[in-house]
């Protein structure tokens, strides 16, 4: 029987894996430069964690979460996003005792039952940042800077940073009432999801993708008009910090995040060339989440982005990532008696960091040298019975044809190749 990959998933084949490795390593370096440390959480958690953090009325919980019961009947879920697990770990492991400000980043797969399309999958890979410990608006700008500067460093030019404030619980409650009053006359024309959202989470109407609902939101009231003074001051300071960092931005009062835990700053980094699925990064503040899932009242902010859309953006701008390294050397073995005896030397070269190709299925000198040339290796290391007897190897430069005899010593071989 032939088996096919589940819908909405994909294999990362060897020909593409170096791109993923490059991006992950690059993100790690950028996050580390800003003082962030890596954290890894399980790919499944108790389902209640996401119900409490994301909101029971959110699309993630209602429609997209992969749930399952274990053999004891306990409810678990594959993680649909990375923030709640990181905050759970922060609370459970008392990371606040190590420092008043905690800087974390993560990489890994997430899962949502969604309609697969370009840049959107049911298993997708995210990178993310979580800063926990301060409400200083500088950290809003710093978190944004990690994402924006990294994407810019990769070579992406068609980026647009959009920012908004969704307010605090007090002023957002007033705004929710204003949205309900605005949308109520259109209730018969709203999509079924938005009819439910109007009572449970009216701000989600601003993010609906149904064409008729998009039309109604054009004249909807703006959250910016309902911010209280502390929220206005915080948002203004974030903008000042971004200007000081020379990070361009656009204020978009329609930005709402798909999860209920966001407060104050919300932002997205848009790539212009990807059509409808054009958001590379999304994030914002979640000052109430730590307390909501059992910790102290500690402010926090973060973001997440998907590698799949990022790769599409890089392809759109024809940005080539660094390909995998070619072999440093190709080991040519001549004579049946040498095949076992050269293995300690071969493994010693590899454990010292040298990329050495070797094919025991090829026996003739001519065939092995042909493979050595086609492998892209700079050197061929040729060993026959005479070389074994004298404990030497022939080092051949495949670009110049020059060949010299050197001692069969891995350190000497590596130094000679480097010089």
From TrEMBL:
CDD domains xref list: HisRS-like_core, HisRS_anticodon
Cellular compartment(s): Cytoplasm
One GO-annotated biological process of the protein: histidyl-tRNA aminoacylation
Binding, L-histidine: 81-83, 112, 126, 130, 257, 261-262
Reactions catalysed, as given in the entry: tRNA(His) + L-histidine + ATP = L-histidyl-tRNA(His) + AMP + diphosphate + H(+)
Chief site of localization: cytoplasm
One term of GO molecular function: ATP binding
Domain Aminoacyl-transfer RNA synthetases class-II family profile, first and last residues per copy: 21-323
Enzyme Commission code: 6.1.1.21
GO-annotated cellular components: cytoplasm
Key words, A-Z: Aminoacyl-tRNA synthetase, ATP-binding, Cytoplasm, Ligase, Nucleotide-binding, Protein biosynthesis
Record has ATP-binding as a keyword: yes
PROSITE patterns named among the record's database cross-references: AA_TRNA_LIGASE_II (PS50862)
Pfam families found in the cross-reference section: HGTP_anticodon, tRNA-synt_His
Family: Belongs to the class-II aminoacyl-tRNA synthetase family.
Binding partners and assembly: Homodimer.
Name under which the protein is recorded: Histidine--tRNA ligase
């Amino acid at each position: 029987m032939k088996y096919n990959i589940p819908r909405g998933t994909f294999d990362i084949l060897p020909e593409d894996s170096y791109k993923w490795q490059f991006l992950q390593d690059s993100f790690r370096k950028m996050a580390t430069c800003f003082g962030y440390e890596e954290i890894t959480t399980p790919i499944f958690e108790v389902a209640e964690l996401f119900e409490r953090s994301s909101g029971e009325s959110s699309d993630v919980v209602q429609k997209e979460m992969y749930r399952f019961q274990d053999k004891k009947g306990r409810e678990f879920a594959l993680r649909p996003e990375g923030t709640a697990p990181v905050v759970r770990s922060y609370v459970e492991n008392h990371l606040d005792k190590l420092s008043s400000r905690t800087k974390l980043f993560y990489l890994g797969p997430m899962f949502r039952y969604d309609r697969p399309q370009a840049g959107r999958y049911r298993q997708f890979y995210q990178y993310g940042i979580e800063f926990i410990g301060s409400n200083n608006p500088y950290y809003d700008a710093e978190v944004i800077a990690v994402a924006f500067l990294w994407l810019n460093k990769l070579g992406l030019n068609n980026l647009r940073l959009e920012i908004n404030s969704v307010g605090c619980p007090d002023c957002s409650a007033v705004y929710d009432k204003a949205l309900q009053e605005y949308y109520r006359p259109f209730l018969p024309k709203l999509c079924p999801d938005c009819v439910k959202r109007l009572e449970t989470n009216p701000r989600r109407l601003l993010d609906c993708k149904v064409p008729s609902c998009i039309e109604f939101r054009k004249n909807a009231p703006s959250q910016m008009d309902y911010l209280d003074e502390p929220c206005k001051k915080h948002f203004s300071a974030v903008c000042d910090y971004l200007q000081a960092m020379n990070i361009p931005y656009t204020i978009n009062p329609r930005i709402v995040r798909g999860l209920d835990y966001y407060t104050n700053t919300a932002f997205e980094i848009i790539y212009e060339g990807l059509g409808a699925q054009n958001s590379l990064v999304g994030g914002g503040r979640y000052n109430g989440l730590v307390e909501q899932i059992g910790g102290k009242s500690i402010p926090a902010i973060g973001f997440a982005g998907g590698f799949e859309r990022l790769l599409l953006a890089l392809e759109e701008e024809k940005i080539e990532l660094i390909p995998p390294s070619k072999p440093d050397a190709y080991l040519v073995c001549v004579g049946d008696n040498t095949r076992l005896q050269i293995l300690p030397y071969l493994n010693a070269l590899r454990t010292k960091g040298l990329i050495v190709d070797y094919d025991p299925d090829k026996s003739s000198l001519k065939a092995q040298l042909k493979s050595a040339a086609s492998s892209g290796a700079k050197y061929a290391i040729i060993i026959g019975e005479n070389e074994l007897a004298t404990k030497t190897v022939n080092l051949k430069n495949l670009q110049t044809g020059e060949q010299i005899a050197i001692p069969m010593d891995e350190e000497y071989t590596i130094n000679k190749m480097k010089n």
